[in-house]
Amino acid sequence: MLRQKLQDDSLAALKTGDKEKLSVLRFIIAQIKNKEIDKNPPAGGELNDEETLVVLKKIAKELKESIEAFEKGNRPDLVKENKKQLVVVSQYLPAEITEEELKKEIEKIIADNKAIYDQNPKAIIGICMKQLKAKADRPES
Fold this sequence. Notes:
With 141 residues, the protein is mainly α. Helices cover 74% and strands 0% of the residues.
């Protein structure tokens, strides 16, 4: 569904002549296709929305790192270009949840999986990571 939205928006950008947005969307779609090939080399196979979000987050992270590097290197032209690209990528990312919302989600997961938590509290970490991967990002440190 997310991939289809990206393709639809790419077509719309082509029709309206928005070259910057079209370029970014084509790059995103190419990265998604590369991930699909890596995922299943013989046949490919489409990524689901969660896997597509992982690709989008990776692109956003790379753009943020590039912006920081270009700011340190005193390259305002490249900073501006990368910020524009980041705006386009950010349109397709869900809003990240706050720390308070994250704690509530974790408490809910623990309550829903009380039996597992009682036997092995560390097992809840895997369940939380799986369910919250698209909503929350890992801290840098």
